[in-house]
Amino acid sequence: MTDVYARHSGSITAYALRRASGADAADVVADTFMVAWRRHGEIPDEPNTLPWLYGVARRVLANQRRSIRRRGALHERLRDEFVEFESGADPTVTTERFDCVAAALTRLSDDDAELLRLTAWEGLGPTEIATALDADPGAVRQRLRRARTRLRGAMEAADPIAVTAEANRDEAVPAAYAIATVASESDWSRGGGRA
């Protein structure tokens, strides 16, 4: 298998780079050779090895594109549900708020973003998250506090006026947007919240 990688990784990398961005192309190459490693008994002898790898890479790329489309569709569906959730709100303003949170989440580490999603979207408390992550609840509370602070900072960097205005609103803040506004005010920041 090592010799297959040595001979053909350059060709598969070039194939992927012609069809996807750098990070996505790297994933295509890695996934292609992972499939080849798992199916090493099926790899044909030379000169058919490279064409077989191209076929694997083509399927990996197709799966990647489907996944990207599904994520985009999910994002749109969540945004639509978010707009419907805040009844009576101006849909333009609500959509802007959702986009602000979504954009800020992409600027966080995967770990921070997942903690916030588990809290805001799945409704889990620190003890439940600790169970899911096999971590200490106290450590999860600290990580949540820091993640909320980083999210708020990312949002303020993008639009400080909107975030300040939202934090000062008297009415309830929608659940999906609340992850940004509870960084300093809620029971979470004092170590409370659902246990």
Question: Helices and strands in order, then pairings?
Answer:
Layout: H1 2-17, H2 22-38, H3 49-85, H4 91-106, H5 110-120, H6 126-133, H7 137-158, H8 160-167, H9 175-181
Helix pairs in contact: 1-2, 1-3, 2-3, 3-4, 4-7, 5-7, 5-9, 6-7, 7-8
* CATH-derived topology of the largest domain: Arc Repressor Mutant, subunit A
Overall pLDDT level: 75
**Fraction of helical residues:** over 70%
> How many discrete domains?
2
pLDDT below 50 for ≥5 consecutive residues: which ranges?
Answer: 168-195
The N- and C-terminal alpha carbons lie at a distance of: 49 Å
Strand-and-helix sequence, N→C? HHHHHHHHH
Superfamily at the CATH H level of the largest domain? Winged helix-like DNA-binding domain superfamily/Winged helix DNA-binding domain
Oligomer: single chain
CA-based shape = elongated
Largest sheet: none
CATH architecture of the largest domain: Orthogonal Bundle
Q: Measured on Cα atoms, how large is the radius of gyration?
A: 22 Å
Q: Would you state the CATH class of the largest domain? A: Mainly Alpha
Number of helices: 9
Total strand segments: 0
Portion in beta strands? under 5%
